[in-house]
């Protein structure tokens, strides 16, 4: 009847009006709460990033709780008697690293001699560190991501957002995944990426550098988030490019925020393979021209890898125009740990794993395992010949080829 049609229309209009009002109210809500930030990881880069984030949470109290929890993989550490704070009455025995960080405000093992802000709280319990965080920063060597996600399963706030500073790719028999995607999928939250020409010791000493952050959360349901992402509550400051710039940008650490998560993540992962090749060449004393040749081929393979396997999302320009691409390649092929250890392994004629253990005091190379993981992925698809430099580095690390043959191995035919 006309009366019932009229009332149906009226009730539809009412529902529409109330939806509009609700969404306008949300837009008008002034945030009444602040973000809580946790850094998962406390190695060389993990500690340097925690320092940056803690400086910025302190400087922006309207957006963030000042305290930054930093999850530490607990271990005992003997404070050297040469350390300025060494007191034989207190430090005669090895102590928990978390206790040393919290009392000395310094990560004496992984980032020595750098004062950390006192609003960083080191904690050994990963679930305690992450459970109330609305912003999570993942910064661990890539080989530990899987076990960390297992431990965090079900712990994180589902509306939390994350940034991965990890340089590596997640290869499994099912395929290849960016670590930002792996973390997002495993924890049910969205995760972007941060990567750049950022040797941690230089950044921690506040020497100028640039970095790239990529953040591009989906707006509806996707394969990884079939029910869509849980919305960040309106009481919290909006999580967007501006917020991440505020959290990471410092006068000595300049941030550009983009949307190409694949390009940002792949640059940081793949340049580690090229840095090993550069170290090999330097180990032989072949000079700068040889290293430039290796870097040229490496950059082309990085870009080709992105185009071939992440075509929908990865932009070629990210490799050439952003810090996370060519700039990271250049710095890593000169001052990085992968370069250093590869060079020493040639000079001392020792396996690179032995050099890593002797030289890095617990820090981890990412290029050796990335070379093997990328090779596994390419080999399964019969594509090793398409990436001659990546393939040669893997074969040299395995002892199947000699560094001296690198020029023929990467020659264009
Ligand atoms: N160090 C640097 O200059 C830079 C590193 N990166 C990237 O940042 C990521 C993290 O690197 P770093 O902080 O330098 O780490 P790191 O190389 O200093 O690694 C040591 C860290 O691993 C932890 N660890 C050891 N065993 C563990 C386990 N079983 N489970 C969990 N954690 C364990 C240690 O406690 C320590 O915190 C890597 O992907 C790296 O490529 C990115 C930019 C610069
Ligand atoms: O990623 C880095 C600099 O941007 C550091 O590289 P290494 O892990 O080789 O030291």
UniProtKB/TrEMBL annotation:
Reactions that this protein is recorded to catalyse: sn-glycerol 3-phosphate + NAD(+) = dihydroxyacetone phosphate + NADH + H(+)
Domain Glycerol-3-phosphate dehydrogenase NAD-dependent C-terminal intervals: 260-406
Key word rRNA-binding present: no
The protein's Enzyme Commission number: 1.1.1.8
Transmembrane segment boundaries: none
InterPro entries (alphabetical): 6-PGluconate_DH-like_C_sf, 6PGD_dom2, G3P_DH_NAD-dep, G3P_DH_NAD-dep_C, G3P_DH_NAD-dep_euk, G3P_DH_NAD-dep_N, NAD(P)-bd_dom_sf
Ranges in coiled-coil conformation: none
Domain Glycerol-3-phosphate dehydrogenase NAD-dependent N-terminal, chain residue ranges per copy: 37-217
Enzyme category, top tier: oxidoreductase
GO molecular function, one term: protein homodimerization activity
GO CC, any one term: cytosol
Pfam families: NAD_Gly3P_dh_C, NAD_Gly3P_dh_N
UniProt key word Transferase: no
GO annotation terms (biological process): carbohydrate metabolic process; glycerol-3-phosphate catabolic process
Keyword terms, alphabetized: NAD, Oxidoreductase, Signal
Family membership: Belongs to the NAD-dependent glycerol-3-phosphate dehydrogenase family.
Name by which UniProt lists this protein: Glycerol-3-phosphate dehydrogenase [NAD(+)]
Protein source organism: Morchella conica CCBAS932
């Amino acid at each position: 009847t006309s009366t019932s049609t009229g009332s149906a229309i009226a009730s539809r209009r009412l529902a529409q009006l109330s939806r509009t009002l609700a969404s306008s109210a949300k837009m008008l809500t002034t945030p009444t709460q602040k973000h809580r930030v946790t850094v998962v990881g406390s190695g060389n880069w993990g500690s340097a990033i925690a320092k940056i984030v803690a400086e910025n949470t302190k400087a922006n109290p309207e957006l963030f709780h000042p305290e930054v929890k930093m999850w530490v993989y607990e271990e005992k550490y003997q404070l050297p008697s040469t350390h300025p704070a060494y007191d034989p009455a207190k430090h005669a025995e090895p102590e928990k690293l978390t206790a040393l960080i919290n009392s000395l405000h310094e990560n004496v093992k992984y980032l020595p001699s750098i004062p950390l802000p006192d609003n960083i709280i080191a904690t050994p319990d990963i679930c305690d560190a992450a459970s109330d965080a609305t912003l999570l920063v993942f910064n661990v060597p890539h080989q530990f991501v899987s076990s960390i996600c297992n431990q965090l399963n079900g712990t994180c706030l589902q509306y939390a957002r994350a940034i991965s500073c990890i340089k590596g790719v997640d290869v499994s028999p099912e395929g290849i995944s960016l670590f930002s995607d792996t973390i997002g999928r495993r924890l049910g939250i969205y995760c972007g990426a941060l990567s750049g020409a950022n040797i941690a010791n230089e950044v921690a000493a506040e020497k100028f550098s640039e970095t790239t952050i990529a953040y591009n959360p989906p707006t509806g349901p996707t394969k990884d988030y079939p029910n869509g992402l849980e919305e960040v509550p309106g009481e919290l400051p909006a999580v967007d490019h501006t917020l991440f710039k505020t959290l990471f940008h410092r006068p000595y650490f300049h941030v550009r925020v983009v949307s190409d998560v694949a390009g940002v993540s792949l640059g940081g992962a793949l340049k580690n393979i090229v840095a090993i090749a550069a170290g090999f060449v330097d180990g032989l004393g072949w000079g700068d021209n040889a290293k430039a040749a290796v870097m040229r081929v490496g950059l082309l393979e990085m870009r080709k890898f992105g185009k071939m396997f992440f075509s929908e999302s990865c932009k070629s320009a990210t490799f050439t125009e952003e810090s996370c691409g060519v700039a990271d390649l250049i710095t890593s092929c000169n001052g990085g740990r992968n370069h250093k250890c590869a060079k020493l392994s040639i000079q001392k004629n020792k396996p690179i794993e032995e050099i890593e253990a002797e030289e890095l005091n617990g820090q981890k190379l990412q290029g050796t395992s990335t070379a093997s993981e990328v090779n596994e992925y390419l080999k399964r698809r019969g594509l090793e010949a398409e990436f001659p430099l990546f393939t040669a580095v893997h074969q040299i690390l395995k002892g199947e080829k000699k560094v001296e043959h690198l020029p023929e191995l990467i020659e264009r035919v």
